[in-house]
Design brief:
Number of domains: 2
Distance between the termini: 32 Å
Largest sheet: 4 strands, mixed
Structural class: alpha+beta
Helix content: 40-55%
Radius of gyration: 19 Å
Strand content: 15-25%
Order of helices and strands: EEHHEHEEHHEEEHHHHHHEEH
Length: 265
């Protein structure tokens, strides 16, 4: 991790993580969670317990959780969550729409990845808001210590918002730890007799990939879109920001292809 200037103007500096560093840091936190709270014995990460019981220990401040916030009136229709940093605590608010959705069977994925996204802001971006008793607020911005997470941020459209990119990388590393996730992906892929990812994407017009992504989303209790983003970031799919596959003579982005396969992604 190094500190560099923030060209967006939102923060006085930017925290830079090298490739793979966020995965490494989150793996360490997961190990600490297993030691300090409880061993992880399931495929999925118990993100709710991670946030409620481990995050305060890791941050050294209280974490107040609001799982039924009505964020839409004040924050906007596309705001899923907001994290507010104070000198002595952090407040995480998750919009009630996500909470209600998570209560329906098989629909907890978006809630989980949003919680993991907010936890990542806390773990990786607290220094941006750190205070000092003698000097007052050292690192603060015009939003008074608040990071609002829009639906498009969690869905990987960043618009130069490097902090949202990092939070998504942290979300993926928390909810889908690299080694565990890759092992599960290869097992699912090879169960269909497919041994390379190009063939997986092409098999039955993408239908088989949809089945694999669906299995992974259920196993790790995340959304299918999160599975696609994670596979892309691990080099298993064309990069989300690159034009990738040729279909019917038309160049398409992998995000567009996933959207065609699964409109609810």
């Amino acid at each position: 991790m190094i500190i560099i200037p923030d060209k967006t103007g939102k923060f006085p500096f930017r925290i830079w993580y090298d490739d793979g560093e966020i995965d490494h840091v989150m793996d360490w936190h997961l190990q600490q969670f297993s030691k300090l709270v409880e061993p992880i014995t399931t495929t999925w990460t118990p993100i709710d317990k991670f946030v409620e019981y481990y995050l305060p220990k890791a941050l050294g401040v209280d974490v107040d959780l609001d799982f039924g916030a009505d964020l839409q009136p004040n924050e906007g229709a596309d705001v899923l969550a907001a994290t507010h940093f104070f000198p002595d605590k952090v407040e995480i608010a998750i919009d009630r729409r996500l909470v209600e959705e998570s209560e329906r069977e098989g629909r907890e994925g978006r809630f989980n990845i949003t919680m993991a996204h907010e936890a990542s802001h806390c773990l990786f971006h607290l220094p941006l808001f750190r205070t000092d008793a003698n000097q007052g607020v050292l690192f603060q911005n015009g939003s008074q210590g608040k990071i609002r997470c829009l639906s498009r941020n969690v869905a990987s459209t960043y618009d130069r918002q490097w902090w949202e990119y990092q939070a998504n990388q942290g979300m993926a590393a928390l909810a889908m730890p690299k080694n565990k996730f890759l092992k599960a992906f290869l097992s699912e892929r090879e169960a269909y007799g497919i041994y390379d990812n190009t063939s997986l994407l092409e098999a039955e017009g993408g239908y088989v990939f949809g089945l694999v992504a669906g299995h992974l989303s259920r196993s790790f209790r995340v959304s299918k879109k999160a599975v696609g983003v994670r596979l892309s970031s691990l080099g298993q799919l064309p990069n989300q920001n690159q034009q990738s596959l040729l279909r019917g003579g038309k160049i398409m982005r992998i995000g567009d292809i996933l959207g065609e396969m699964f409109p609810d992604w």
